[in-house]
Queue: 3 jobs
Job 1
Amino acid sequence: MRYPKLCQALAATLLAGGALDCGHAAAPPAAAPAAPAAVASHYALDPARSSLEFTFLQAGAKNTGRFPRFAVTLDCSGADPAGGRLEVTVEVAALDTGDKDRDDTLRSDDLFAAAKFPQAHFLATRIVKTAGGYEAEGALTIRGVTRETKVPFTFREATEGGAAVGYLTGKALVRRLDFGVGQGEWKATDQAGNEVTVSFALRLTRAAH
Amino acid sequence: MALRNTTRRWGAIAQTFHWVIVALIIVQVTLAEKADDLPNGMRKLKLLAQHKSVGITILMLVILRLGWRALNPHPPLPDNLKPYERKLAHFTHAALYTLLFALPLSGWMMSSARGFPVSWFGFFQLPDLVPKSRPLYDALVTTHHTLAWTLIGVVALHVAGALKHHFVHKDDVLRRMLPFTRH
């Protein structure tokens, strides 16, 4: 859809809906807003069917971990993330690499310092359409350090059991040292690699608007 | 000095295998002892990563060494050995080869069971030998440590034997494995 805002404005004005296909079921006439507001969609995470994982090199060998506790909201027009707002909040202390000793070390002050910085946060206020799907650009905050980060992803909406859902997947490369995750002896990258690939496969459910 | 073995003396290649593996065993024990004393952290990780890489190196060398031994004649034990001495010598050598396989393999399995894949000096990653399992890991820790102590014991026996040949029997058993000795 090339002109989402224009499309929404026209659909709202036409009231009846269905005259212009904005890529989703048109708003029911009764809900037509008086102001030319966009047909806003608010998606929230379905945690049971979503995953946020990361892979890293430990002493040159590939290892994986996951963040089991996180929240995601996506606010956009219709079912097109472009121009929308994506927010991710991660409970860092809940990280799980399948090894308690390693997890305790990761939570410690020189690495994630989870006690002091319990959450990691990504807020993208700029989402653009790209050749491969979409790209969210915004502020990524880890261990209290914020950096502008671009995260490519794909988005597919579907209707399941009568409800609108969105599948959002992608991966991003994060350099832990950019965020200070690794102080003192952990600045060295031979045992714990600097580059971490974060991959996410999210199922989002759209709230009725 | 000849590269290959003769019936009277170990060649340069066999000697190199022998003494390099001796040196690496000393390095291994040192790395393990130092790592054991450390709390979880970067230094311990580093020492264990080196220990694993050296261990895999020993495994590779032992495989090559056995191959080389199979392709070569080897100096026999002296004629004047008593039957029990002969048996003890064969047993010690067989035990050493067995342990030099079992130790790195049990260590590799241990790492796999813990869920920490092994990397050879950061150059390549080895496949996991067993699935991740804490009970299996705990059992392999005991196995690996027991085998290590057994190796130290058998090495002590081996060294004692070599010295006995040299100083008591005054034969050339030790000399023929030493570089730079005239034969």
Job 2
Amino acid sequence: MPDRSRSQLPDEALLEASGNGDRQAFGELVRRHQSWAWGVAYRFIGSRDEAEDIVQAAFIKLLVASGRYRRTARFKTFFHVIISRLCLDHAKREKPVQADDYPELADSSPGQEEALMTSQNAARVRRALDSLPPRPRMAVVLRYYEGLGYDEMAVVLETSRKGVERLLSRGREALREKLGSR
Amino acid sequence: MLCRNCHTRLSAYLDGELSGRELWDMKRHLDGCASCRAHLAELEALDAPLASPGTPEMPGDLEYRIMARASREYFDARDTSRFRAIARRWLGPTATASALAIGLLLGGLLGWNSHGGPISEQSTLRTENAVFASLSAAPGGSIEAAVLAGFDGGGRL
């Protein structure tokens, strides 16, 4: 199958083809989805190396699970489930990861000061996220950075809408304590 | 609505997930409660810091590493497995044909002698007994030994 036709195929068809041994179909899936997958993993874990391991493992699991995939589920939701499970399993197994350090800028010229504040703020957010228990942390990542609605989050986190609301509420209250002005 | 109930539903209100009576109750409470309005404002203020840039760039060779791992752990293993299945399918009938040929040859050796025709029934019986005795002699029984036993038992060609 030529590359042009693969780039026009929907994700669901590419996944089926990948499961049947079509490497180029799988390559197209990787190109389309590696960026946001990386974003979810990194924002949850906070370490580049760990995030990359998660993303690689997620794509392999996607291949292995392709035989079980049913087109009744959206591909992205299916992949979100895989990534979330890997991140949550990782959090259960590992001690809290030392998040990547954000570079402190020595130069205090006006433009650099703004960059320094941005960097410090990013480090503060990172620490706040890392302080959350895994499931509320994943709920915050899915809501704030992936923009998922409650129904989709319920599928991804394998809970109910009420469960999603509770997780987000816990996450937000904890972040409010860490990042709030008081 | 009490403040503690309001606090538990503020997340859903913030995300536009309330509707109908729940939404009406929430708005009515917020209109009359400065404390809960302040609480809501603090939750809304999380948007800015959480949205600030903080995700390092994705590794440039991530795609390459994913594809390399997929080749090793899935595609190559799958191709090897399929090759073995195909090989078994082709060798299976071949092995069966070989066994059949040996069987026919053995049958020919047992039923005929070289001097013109089928041998006597008694001679056949002696030969068959010799062949079966050889085949059943464990662990030494073999087709070769059975053929030789056929000669020894009078199954002359």
Job 3
Amino acid sequence: MTIAMIFVFLGLLALALTIYLAKGQLSSGGDLQKLSTQLRSVDVAAFCNLISASEQDYLRGHLPSREFRSIHRERMLAAVEYVRCAARNAAILIRLGESARQHSDPSVREAGEKLLENGLRLRLYALQLVPRLYLSMAFPKFGPASNPLADAYENMSRQVVRLSRLDFPTHDMSSAL
Amino acid sequence: MLFARYYLWIGPHVLLAVFLVCLLRRKLHGQLPIFTSFVIFELIQFIVLFTISRHSPLPGAIYGWVLVFGEGISSILGFGVIYELANELLLSRSSSASVLRPGLRAMLAVLLLGAAIGSGALYGISMQRVINTFEVIDFSSYLIQAGMVLGLFVFARALRFSWRSWVAGVALGFGVSGCMDLASAAFRGFGKTSFIAVDLTQMAAFHVCVVIWLVSLFLADHAPPFPDGKLKLSDLELWDQELQRMVRR
């Protein structure tokens, strides 16, 4: 009976989650004008500084261990916020790409398809990067100094740089970024 | 009560037949061929079982084994539909496929483990071999289907995929039905009363599922037009070039 009750609970929980997630999927995505107001500007230089390996080494060498850990934690938290901003902006790009895919002009459709794919790739980067930043927060040794992670950070910083430069004249998105 | 039982048995299948006709007339069956096979099989299974139950002089055990055999095929087709949905909604987008595939595989492995544990715990709850077999197939397939559909929605949410098409409706229908069936399937072995109650719940869930499929098919006709008339190709190309530079290294 206990096992049965557990599966009843799991089934109902899964049902509630499925409906909640589907509701978000099936609801209107909103127009681009509204979405453009949700864009957040990203200070790329500050982000690069936060994830810089040399900066981290400098802090490690000049600060007491306890203070370094505390500061490193705050820096990684700030970096996570930057990555989330970039991911949110990418979500808006994805919406734009999806809209363009419905256009009657095949060349616009094709451009929208490419835009969508690149936006998705950017979100995947962001999804992979956030847990790594949290890991680095807990264990500074696994921070941006390690090569694969440094690459990922660099990629992400490039993404953020480009995002901050993206210009969308019809909706004044460039100023928002 | 008898009316409700017959309605919940016949009604959803009548709606399913309407759905199949609409699907074929709009030539959408090519988009999800396994799902179309699933729908056709469900209709055939219903006709066979209904005929056996109403007119056959054969013993009740025959009905039971036909039901078990049909449930097995239906489960296999159901897994095929989940794969088809995953492919249509997530994996066909080349950039995400390589990352999402391992995630989906891991999820499937966990669900298989859960199904094995659950089936082991629930097996033997009834004295009849045919009912036991039915319960194991029933429970395992619902657990995996519900879990996989939920997983697809979680991935879509994380990546901000948009599913505004009838395929999303198919996924939602499967998800709702799978979750309700999972919640009720574990009670199937607790006597005849619970067996009937579980049957009614699952038939009601299937009814909801078919209604969702039908609604999503009709809503697909009214897809919103391209929302931004001011958007130009040059803008799109500019954005795309920027993004390509971002992700290339």
